[in-house]
Design a protein that fits this description.
This protein is α/β, with parallel strands linked by helices and about 550 residues long. Helices cover about 35% and strands about 20% of the residues. It is globular, with a radius of gyration of 26 Å. It binds iron/sulfur cluster. The site of iron/sulfur cluster has 10 residues, from loops.
């Protein structure tokens, strides 16, 4: 028996349906689908290739009475959306693939008990690491969690799948993952929107500890249910309009087919001959027996999937003499995005072509904006000998590249301080953790607490530019005083740091202190035991009036 606290939410009347299609990216299509599906809530953490989803929703949130925000990190983004969906309303949460590592604890533990309203988690994978530390494939998380995963092949499918994903989530009481990859996320194709849902159920927070209080005896029961549900989910996927099966290849003497998913589908449609069969896998859990049947009906099957060779590995197990070609057979490159020239060679049965010849174009590394205060900081660090400099994700990591190259390594969000803790524990006495403000809020606070608790001797250089600059300037909790009212300072960063109990927190403006002053400040911090925070405060130039016309910094003017 469940008890509930009902909160009534006014029904909306919206109809944004366009009578003709618009050419938009899959990111935008996901955002419009979520709005048209009647979401009440949308949370996200920025990162390539999914940032545009939330940017689009934020532009339309007020009109649609949607609470939309950039969360402090992906775990909080997921948890808050989860609460909305448990309460019976629809919620969208989006992040990049490494963001799901941060949200994984909440995500994995939420799947057995599931949701009541629709919960859609959009994850953007980066198979070629265009802007990511790794190429991880979110389908692995689907297999770990038992959730549903849908993989759009273009923007229209991103719209249709996302729209339907809310209903699927409600029908199966499970979160649904929409897996985008870089090319589907950014590729623009025509999208026809459908009539928006014009009503929203009341929010009702259930009191069901027998379902949501996941102690072991509850979990064991819920996992049984989750396992049983996999067959139903597979049936739904196969019957959905997103699964495409063509058996033209069976007419030939040597029967050939292509097995594809996501961006592999348009690549197959464009390049694979019409006398080949085709099976498009719409997502997971796709039934093994259908894959086996398709593979065994053919003499040769080419697998086109973006990311890891998961489908290919599965069908190899059941191929029974069918020649399976793909990344594992080395017909397609093991790393990076699917390449048309490799697909064409695999179709023709010729060896995988070598990468294109070097065109002698100069390598273009990302650069720090010309008048940014980071120049003075990194020029100063270049002159300080014998320091260990673990650093972090964001604009500040540009100091690891020429002309400065003053960083020893970048691992994950917040890792600079965690790695610094290990260095200090091993007795390194000149440790400088370098981290930006957005990353500090995201995952830098826990290791700073550990450093203080353990009494480590280390310095944290906290580069506060008042925004998540590298992903386009999303807000952080303490935006500079000059920011517009909705973004004005809410958290006092220096006070927060001091409350943790660091030995000292010294605030400085790089343009006032200059290179020599910064060098002196950092160097002298190593002489003092305990945890010291050097708090750089200089608003990101992108949000500073006159920035674009100001003088660029030159290494020759180091004293400045
Ligand atoms: S985006 Fe902002 S913080 Fe990043 S390098 Fe440019 S001015 Fe500096």
């Amino acid at each position: 028996m469940s008890r509930s606290l009902a909160v009534t939410v006014a029904e909306r009347e919206i109809d944004q349906t366009t009578s003709s299609s618009e050419v938009i990216s899959a990111d935008e299509a996901v955002a419009f689908a979520a709005l048209d599906a009647g979401i009440a809530y949308s949370s996200a953490y920025p990162g390539t290739p999914t940032t545009d989803i939330q940017e689009t929703i934020l532009k339309h949130a007020d009109l649609n009475q949607v609470k939309a925000l950039w969360s402090i990190n992906e775990k909080v983004a997921y948890e808050s959306a989860l609460a909305v969906a448990i309460g019976g309303q629809r919620a969208l949460v989006s992040m990049k693939q490494v963001g799901l590592n941060v949200a994984a604890d909440a995500f994995m533990n939420s799947c057995p008990a599931g949701v009541n309203g629709g919960l859609v988690l959009v994850v953007g994978d980066e198979p070629a690491c265009h802007s990511s530390q790794n190429k991880q494939d979110t389908r692995h998380y689907r297999n770990l969690s038992g959730a549903v995963l849908l993989e759009p092949s273009d923007s229209q499918e991103a719209y249709d799948m996302t729209r339907e994903a809310f209903a699927v989530s409600e029908r199966f009481s499970l979160p649904v993952i929409i897996r985008l990859t870089t090319r589907t996320a950014y590729g623009c194709t025509p999208v026809l929107r459908r009539k928006a849902r014009n009503s929203r159920p009341a929010f009702s927070w259930p009191k069901q500890p027998e379902r949501f209080f996941i102690v072991p005896q509850v979990s064991r029961r819920l996992f049984k249910r989750l396992l049983e549900r996999q067959v139903e989910l597979g049936d739904w996927l196969v019957k959905s309009s997103y699964t495409v099966r063509r058996l033209d290849g069976l007419q030939a003497r040597y029967r050939r087919g292509v097995l594809c998913t996501g961006i592999g589908y348009p690549l197959a449609k464009e390049n694979v001959p019409h006398n080949w069969s085709l099976l498009k896998v719409a997502g997971e859990p796709f039934p093994d027996d259908l894959l086996s049947e398709f593979v065994r009906q053919h003499d040769e099957v080419l697998v086109l999937e973006e990311g890891d060779p998961l489908l290919e590995a599965r069908v190899r197990h059941v191929s029974k003499g069918t020649k399976v070609r793909g990344r594992l057979s080395d017909d397609l490159t093991q790393f990076g995005e699917l390449q048309v020239r490799e697909i064409c060679a695999a179709i023709e049965g010729t060896p995988r072509p070598l990468p294109p010849p070097n065109t002698d174009l100069p390598t273009r590394l990302p650069e720090i904006c010309k008048p940014c205060g980071y120049h003075k900081v990194f020029a100063a660090l270049k002159e300080i000998p014998d320091i260990a400099t673990p650093s972090d994700i964001g604009c500040n990591s540009l100091g690891g590249m020429p002309p400065y190259s003053v960083m020893d390594g970048v691992w994950a969000m917040g890792s600079s301080i965690g790695v610094a803790c290990g260095l200090a524990a091993m007795g390194h006495s000149r440790v400088l953790a370098i981290i930006g403000d957005s990353t500090f809020y995201h995952a830098g606070l826990p290791p700073l607490i550990e450093a203080v608790q353990e009494g480590y001797r280390l310095t944290v250089l906290l580069l506060d530019n008042g925004t998540a600059a590298m992903t386009g300037g999303q807000p952080v909790p303490h935006h500079f005083d000059s920011a517009p009212a909705p973004l004005a300072r809410k958290i006092d960063l220096a006070l927060l740091i001091k409350a943790i109990g660091v030995r000292s927190c010294t605030t400085f403006d790089p343009h006032v202190l200059g290179v020599m002053g910064i060098r002196e400040l950092v160097s002298s911090s190593f002489e003092v035991p305990g945890v010291k925070v050097l708090l750089y405060r200089s608003q990101c130039g992108l949000f500073t009036p006159g920035y674009h016309t100001s003088e660029p910094f030159s290494l020759k003017q180091k004293g400045g």
